[in-house]
Write a structure and sequence with these properties.
Elements (H helix, E strand, L loop, with lengths): L15 H14 L8 E2 L1 H8 L3 H14 L2 E4 L3 E4 L4 H23 L3 H21 L2 H17 L4 H20 L7 H16 L3 H22 L5
Antiparallel strand pairs: 1-3, 2-3
Helix pairs in contact: 1-3, 1-7, 4-6, 4-7, 4-9, 5-6, 5-8, 6-7, 8-9
Length: 225
């Protein structure tokens, strides 16, 4: 007995909605759309040069990701992160990056160190140029590369969302960032501990890195304890 297999459609390129979601996600991440800002469909459709159908689909994706919130009869707004959100984002990041670091330490550390040199080089260049956005992008890429080196697609997916939320925090409170040379040095120390296979030192430095970021962000947030 034979089973008929339906004709398979060719894999299509990325949909317009996916591309639009990426553009809006990046704008939220970099602070172009501030926390609490309302996003109007007509304005966004015009700026992005797309119809409202793909735009609505893209915005619903971002609602599902937790980056936008929908208010009945009012529209869509960029989600605002409070003190508890900041603590929770960094708690989750610490857990995910700790797990990734342990996987890397048990596997090919040398390849991971090589991968980390790319964002580290970008961090140094941005710091020297006084490019705050470029520095934040490279910082983001460093942590994404660390998790990617673990080989875990699930850890990587979790990291993608957490890093966007992290950038939302940092974009809202940019004045809390440490001096650029200090930030570069922190990441070089993480790289060094990984390169040398010093497990406890790497985990301690990773936790301290996250704790310092939380303290800096909360210090700038009105009403944060």
């Amino acid at each position: 007995m034979s089973i008929e297999v339906p004709e398979l459609e060719p894999v299509s390129r990325r949909s317009t909605a996916e591309i639009v979601a990426d553009r809006i996600r990046t704008a939220i991440m970099r602070g172009t759309f501030a926390p609490g800002a309302q996003l109007g469909e007509v304005d966004l459709a015009g700026r992005l040069g797309v119809s409202r159908g793909p735009l609505r689909e893209a915005m619903q994706r971002l609602v599902a990701e937790g980056l936008l919130r929908s208010e009945r009869h009012r529209g869509l707004f960029v989600r605002e992160l409070g003190p508890d959100d900041v603590r929770d984002v960094y708690l989750a990041r610490t857990a995910v990056e700790r797990a990734a670091a342990l996987q890397v330490l048990a596997a090919d550390r040398a390849a991971a160190v090589v991968a980390l040199e790319i964002p580290l080089g970008a961090m140094r260049a941005a710091a020297a140029a006084g490019d705050a956005v470029g520095l934040a992008d490279a910082d983001h890429d460093f942590h994404a590369a660390l998790v990617a080196a673990s080989g875990s697609p699930r850890l990587r997916r979790m990291t993608d969302g957490l890093l966007v939320e992290t950038r939302m925090c940092l974009a809202a409170f940019q004045q809390t960032a440490p001096p650029a040379p200090d930030l570069v040095a922190e990441h070089e120390l993480l790289r060094d501990a990984l390169r040398d296979g010093r497990t406890e030192l790497l985990l301690d430095r990773l936790a301290a890195h996250m704790d310092d970021a939380v303290a800096r962000i909360l210090a700038a947030m009105p009403g944060a304890a």
